[in-house]
Amino acid sequence: MNLDFSTLAGAQDFLWQGFKYSLTLTVSSMVFGIFFGTLLAMARMSSIKPLSLAAAGYVNLFRSVPLVLVIFWFYILVPLLTGVDVGAERSAFLTFAIFEAAYYCEIIRAGIQSIPRGQIAAGQAMGFSYGQNMRYVILPQAFRNVVPLLLTQTIVLFQDTSLVYVVGATDLLGAADKVAHRDNTLVEMYMLVALIYFSISFALSQAVKRLHARIAIVR
Amino acid sequence: MSQYQWNWSVVLEQVSGTEEFYYQWLAAGLGWTVATALSAWVLALVVGSLIGILRTVPSKPVAALATAYVEVFRNIPLIVQMFLWFFVLPELVPHNLGIWMKQSMPLPEFTTAVIALGFFTSARVAEQVRTGILALPRGQKNAGLAMGFTLGQTYRYVLLPMAYRIVIPPLTSEFMNIFKNSAVALAIGLTELTFQMRQITGEYAPANPIEVMTVVSALYLLVAFSVNRVMALIERKTRVPGYISGGH
């Protein structure tokens, strides 16, 4: 078995493009996922029954079906509903934001539930409205409690972006796969991709572990 | 969208040019999904338990090796692991074995999917088993050893029976995940449920993707619900009186 990495030099620009797409997709899904996830968590804990039921239905639906299936859902549905052929790369941004919101929602909800009830009452006694109470009292503490969980979920998300391969998008894996088939270097390319994903995910998860030890609130 | 022709009976229709019906394809897909998930779960439980136990033993080098195992399988995406098992491993093993894996291994996609998914999930199971063992009071292990049990017997009769009960809820979600993750195996050509959906909506009945996707999603929801109920039953049957949620 001889490994041949000589074709790598010519392919590195293409691989870098794919890697940049993977990173962009990860960061964008994290930002939108946490934003929608926070709204969902507030809706799930709302005292307005229809709102909390709808949010719970949303979260349970997306947590019960495979991500691969949801990627196909949006890949097929978006052109059908809008009439515009947006392509695999762009439909993935919508897919991941909507899918990840369900997972981030559960983490943020756990964070909000970890806040002592007295904090809400204290905010109300200060004359804060619901929005002000959330903005200045509850959410800052809730987020601080779950930052390590949010980051761990983001590492999972980073690995999951490789699934856009199934609709032919050119992420890191997609780019490596195309190079591998062109140059007949399947073994080298897949090993390289595995190594890249491993290095990044491992380094990040070690960093999260250290952060977790540092920012835990001492009560 | 306005000219979309709804046709919910599409799944009952015959596949043109064949003797088969679409619902038979979906049923076959569901069969492969369940078979893959259950086989991989057996592998994940056995290997995961072993690794999880090894992470808690007194020997430093053994625990470090087990930790390295968990990190490797947790930090590489599942689809990449599938490709490593399917395309890369046959090239790295001795020549004759590689030829056998590529040409005469029975059910190559299914076998590879079970192995890849099993080992991927085993790292997660190992983390849960370890958490369960570490959640037990230190005195339990000492008590076992003081009774004259060997370390192996202490694990078998004292630590593990309690540890497994503690981690049934997280194991339930891993068990549900393995059904969802089995869909990734379509990338190596396993004809499971999502593969069938892609095939039907792509080539055979492209006019009615929404109906087919809805039916397939409902099947996944049904599987998730059933697994959840079964695990809740196991949790009820195995609970220990006197513990939280243990009743009287």
UniProtKB/TrEMBL annotation, chain A:
SUPFAM superfamilies per the UniProt record, alphabetical: MetI-like (SSF161098)
Pfam assignment, any one: BPD_transp_1
Transmembrane helix in keyword set: yes
Single annotated GO MF: transmembrane transporter activity
Main location (coarse class): membrane
Subcellular localization(s) per the UniProt record: Cell inner membrane; Cell membrane
Sequence similarity: Belongs to the binding-protein-dependent transport system permease family. HisMQ subfamily.
Protein purpose: Part of the ABC transporter complex GltIJKL involved in glutamate and aspartate uptake. Probably responsible for the translocation of the substrate across the membrane.
Name of the protein this chain belongs to: Glutamate/aspartate import permease protein GltK
From TrEMBL, chain B:
Transmembrane segments: 30-54, 66-87, 107-125, 145-167, 212-231
Membrane topology: Multi-pass membrane protein
GO function terms (MF aspect): transmembrane transporter activity
Localization per record: Cell inner membrane; Cell membrane
CDD domains: TM_PBP2
Listed SUPFAM superfamilies: MetI-like (SSF161098)
InterPro entries: AA_ABC_transptr_permease_3TM, ArtM/GltK/GlnP/TcyL/YhdX-like, MetI-like, MetI-like_sf
Single GO cellular component term: ATP-binding cassette (ABC) transporter complex
GO biological processes: amino acid transport
One protein family per Pfam: BPD_transp_1
Entry similarity comment: Belongs to the binding-protein-dependent transport system permease family. HisMQ subfamily.
Keywords: Cell membrane, Membrane, Transmembrane, Transmembrane helix, Transport
NCBIfam families on file: HEQRo_perm_3TM
Species in which this protein is naturally found: Rivihabitans pingtungensis
Protein name in UniProt: Glutamate/aspartate transport system permease protein
Domain ABC transmembrane type-1 residues, every copy: 30-231
Superkingdom, natural source: Bacteria
PROSITE patterns the record matches: ABC_TM1
